[in-house]
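just leaving the lab so this will be short. what follows is a protein written twice so to speak, once as letters and once as structure tokens for the fold. can you read through it and tell me how you think this chain folds. anything you notice is useful, everything is just below:
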Amino acid sequence: MIILKGVTKQYGGLAAVQDVSLMIPNESIYGIVGRRRAGKSTLLSIMSLLESPDAGEVYYGINGDERVDILCGERLRMKRRKTGMIFQKGNLFESRNASGNISYPLEVAGMTKKQIARRVDELLEIVHLQDKRTARLRELSDGQKQRVAIARALAGSPEILFCDETASALDPQTAESILELIRDIHDRFRLTVVLVAHQIGLIQSICDDIMVFDEGRIVEVGTVQQLFAPPKTSKERVYA
């Protein structure tokens, strides 16, 4: 479970996130949608402990009772290792091949070469890239690169998987295959998954609940069916 209480984040006087409170259930697939520059990525960075809020509290745990925004040092690093992050562009190392990118967090964690090789093989199978172990990034399609990024995010067996516009830059068919993979991973490992997108249509098929975010604030929260009902606000649904 992820719980935010009154979370606020400002940059140079501009409020990217304004007094946000929400609860994301355990083992759910939760979508966050909104127009570009709505503050979605900042909110995700706070949830994933990559940034600290200026005000408010962040909690993890089965019962949502473990406060994590105040962690620092080794305790913070250990908690981050139980989360995985997938970025829009993958953020892969051009100097490493597919397996080298996947193995990086395992190397940082101090695993042996034998352990790393075994785990990389497992992850390549999960993302269906068994035949791309030694492929350089320039030899991979955009969809395959995202699969490498997903495998890397899973390397530490995370409890929460954060996806920041993971499929937004892909063609529709590839985007659908990536989202199907994320759903399969969720079902297989019972992760909590948080998906950020700027179009509700991109992620509606796999989300349990969706939160609409605009100008740093929550506009609506509900199931896909509820959000496609007549709007509760006068705002035009530019995210649909």
Q: What stands out?
A: The helical segments are 40-47, 73-80, 98-108, 113-126, 142-154, 172-189, 200-203, 224-227. The longest strand covers residues 14-24.
